[in-house]
Amino acid sequence: MLAAVGAATALAAGAAAPATAATPAHGGERYVALGDSYTSAPGVPTQSGGDCARSSVNYPSLTAKALHQKSFKDVSCSGAKTDDMWRAQGANAPQLNALGKKTRLVTLGIGGNDIGFGEIIGTCAQLSVSDPAGAPCRKKYTAADGGDLLNKRIADAAPKVARVLKAVHQRAPHARVVLVGYPSIMPDSGVGCFPDVPIAAGDTPYLRDTEKKLNAMLKQQARKAHVRYADTYRATVGHDVCRPQADRWIEGAQPARPAAPFHPNADGERAMAKPVITQARGR
Questions:
Q1: How confident is the model at residue 14 (pLDDT cuts 50, 70, 90)?
Q2: Which residues carry out catalysis?
Q3: What gap in Å lies between CA 192 and CA 241, rounded to an integer?
Q4: Residues in the active site (predicted)?
Q5: Domain of 21: which CATH number?
Q6: What are φ and ψ of residue 278, in 5° steps?
Q7: Looking at CB atoms within 10 Å, which of 60, 141, 181, 273 has the fewest?
Q8: How far is C-alpha 99 from the geometric centre of its chain's CA atoms?
Q9: What residues have CB less than 8 Å from 185, skipping those under 6 apart?
């Protein structure tokens, strides 16, 4: 199990070290998808994009199909942080380079790696072994003054997301922009399913609440930037890592269907696409 969690951590951190940013390309497809691994969908067939691990059925591809977008470019990349909008990830050019004045739709899924999604999951999984009934991860991320370190990370990520949204507006001034939240990874209620998913009982609600706070921050930044927000959490509740295989849209530490650990499978990406498509259509 922990080996699988380690693989998830590596994906979240990015498989390729950042390279020097390439000369900006002339971008401007009508629809451009930006984002991290929850956008690219590593492990979900059919894969392309090298280390960026993009799926042919990720939510951007499904959105492009639903909207009949023939001019479409997906530059999402596993491990992406907000900084990777301006810098290359291995052979992947800075994601913002894909935008242009002809762009009419931009979807963006970012922020999870800025707060350390992979590190958090890996740490919580390792600590759960010694205290499966407790909340060792919450204790780990509690500061000496009693404050929550993950709350601080979310607060620190807010201006970074705002900066990305401002840059999107500058490079694609005529585009409708949809900021995409994260799906329901942990159960929306209860104490989880240790040891099938190696997260301690008390840490399941802690991680759930942390993700909800991250999504709340993203929604707030969307509102401040006058862009649309796609709520993929609500669209995936009841299909989390603890559900039986037939009902599971987010895979756990040992995926039963093609996907990265703690990431959406094909059904999860399909579910995420629905609110994205709704917001892209302006409804």
A1: low
A2: 37, 263
A3: 9
A4: 37 (nucleophile), 263
A5: 3.40.50.1110
A6: -60, -45
A7: 141
A8: 20
A9: 207, 208, 211, 240, 241, 250, 262
How many domains would you assign to the chain? 1
CA distance 88 to 107: 19
Distance CA 9, CA 263 (A): 11
| Single pTM value for the model | 0.91
CB environment 107-130: b (16+ within 10 A), e (fewer): bbbbbbbbbbbbebbbbbbbbbee
Phi, psi (degrees; rounded to nearest 5) at 98: -75, -15
| Residue 273 to residue 95: CA distance in whole angstroms | 20
